[in-house]
């Protein structure tokens, strides 16, 4: 079983990998999703991350599909007390308005609780910032949910350093709830959104950090290495930019570390993330048991300081 990590000052403890729920009800059907969820818990996994907007981008979907699958699994498996559920508000407009309008936060939380079939969301994220709503107003709306026992801890996703700092300062000054966790985009080939000011802020304020896109949409698994590989998937277009940039150098450094450790490229990418200052655990999703087992293997990969430095330098 994995050694659990404190998720900043949230009061939550999680395994070294967070299971991404974006694929549930989309590229993983209900049966596959249930198998993956069962296996994650069996291996000692703790936190499952989803959002109300998953998977509204799919034709015929309206959002909430992932939460509904997870909710059905929680009911049929009886494993609610073995997992922590994180979900998000702010990208799916609906009752009460859009983004972080206080009425939208209230309505979206109720809808998520219903779909998930739970009484309390363990970690509730503002999925994106909303500059049209005063920060005091949306923090107060989250505070109402905490006071009602509907949310345990708060997180911010896709926030810039300046806005996250102003929210933290405001919470301290006005006695409003604090964001305790950050969910940024961060991986070996996409580092500027987190490294520097935002990373320093998280360390200073003891925010837990659970990065998404840890495998850069599959690029860091090594399956896109040439022009010919780009046609392998709908994501191929975005991979061309990475290959033309520093992606090739990063893959070469990863290949060296793979030869030294016997770990797969996906495991190396996640182990590098987990070793970065301030990072609690990366998020990754799987559509099969084999894929999940490979990802979980990352929490046993111990990279040396020299290996970490080489990987970091390759993507600088």
From TrEMBL:
Residues 16-314 form the NADP-dependent oxidoreductase domain. GO terms for cellular component: cytosol. Pfam families: Aldo_ket_red. GO terms for molecular function: oxidoreductase activity. It comes from the Bacteria. InterPro entries: AKR, AKR_Detox_Biosynth, NAD(P)_OxRdtase_dom_sf, NADP_OxRdtase_dom. Gene3D superfamilies: NADP-dependent oxidoreductase domain. This is Aryl-alcohol dehydrogenase-like predicted oxidoreductase. The lineage of its organism: Bacteria, Pseudomonadati, Pseudomonadota, Alphaproteobacteria, Sphingomonadales.
